[in-house]
Fold this sequence. Notes:
This protein is α+β, with helices and mostly antiparallel strands. The chain folds into 2 domains: 2-198, no CATH class; 207-384, Glucose Permease (Domain IIA) (Distorted Sandwich), CATH 2.70.70. The protein has 10 helices and 13 strands. The chain has helices spanning 2-7, 14-22, 37-59, 65-103, 105-120, 123-127, 133-198, 210-219, 223-228, 350-359, and strands spanning 207-208, 234-235, 258-262, 277-281, 286-288, 293-300, 306-313, 316-323, 325-326, 333-334, 339-342, 367-375, 378-380. A hairpin with a 2-residue loop joins β7 (306-313) and β8. α2 runs antiparallel to α5 (105-120). The longest helix has 66 residues, at 133-198.
Amino acid sequence: MTQRLRHRPIRVTPLAALALTFGLALAPLPGATQSAPPAAAATAAARALEAAAGELNAAKSASNRVKALTATIRAYEAGLAAMRDGLRQASVREAELAAELHAREDEIAQLLGVLQTMARDPSPVLLLHPAGPIGTARSGMILADVAPALDRRAADLRRLLDEARDLRDLQQAAAATLQQGLNGVQEARAALSQAVADRTNLPRRFTEDPVKTGILIAATETLDGFASGLSGVAVDEVPGSLPDITDRKGSLPLPVEGRLLRRAGAADAAGIIRPGIVLATRPRAVVTSPTAATIRYRGPLLDYGNVMILEPQSGILFVLAGLDVVYGNAGEVLPSGSPVGLMGGADPAVDRLVKQAATGTGQDRTETLYIEVRQDNTPDDPENWFRTTKDGQ
Length: 393
């Protein structure tokens, strides 16, 4: 009997045939059981923007409104950047899921056929086999192995489709979140400008002579010449210096969130070589003083646009060039982290932001800030002073 059983052809039900054709498929669909970091990142960014909105309301009544509003703008900037990155990741992930589902259309169709057959026939009928009790037993064993694998496969497919749907819903809802964030940061910038204009409690080390400043600007053709003559425009300067910062050399934060675009001594597109670095920043980004410093000069200069020259201690100058708006007055002493201005440009429209994030195209860091450090009127590589990375701060 054993010999006959070994050579007898085994007939299986249509369900078992489909299941065997499909395979046990114990491994899940690639990516189906992974978490969804793009969705999580975008959700976290949305919460950050909501938190920034709360900070804005609190900042309006804070005792130090300038400091509070600066922190609020930075929070908005970080939240908007995170939202853009999250949407970009979500778009990439959605494309991966769509490609995976398209590549497995035949496999998924087989799975759906198996599941539909199982749902159509009552369980006792599924187990019956034309070969009798032994065939039925074997059919039952096959189903015992196949059914859990089919369940897992169906669950993996469901998770895959749910993730794709969630990513699509997230991108559709992102426009409203981005618009709220842009409205909030614009409101915070306006409030900051007003708070700086209302500020009267900053100490002053000197008074600027506007006539001497005008003569100096007219007589100089280089930043070197202008910087060397700055001490001559101060009137009634208080002797002394701010605390030594040389022990912090190499650890100072950059004045603005940005990506290192050009290093000191590197030629630009026109072949011009300058001793400072260039950062690519987002439009309207807030620029802050990296340490406590005296404002030596603020305003337009040569071909540098609006310039802010800070003196953190005697003999050292931080030159920040390319701003659109500058805050403060020459002679004022700023606390560390104080806003000194805003970058130029304009916030892009929401639909453009969403489109750029979806396609992965477009450049969101369209503005440039030039940073030069001068020690004893000699340029020093800013990377010796500030924390910089190739990909950004």
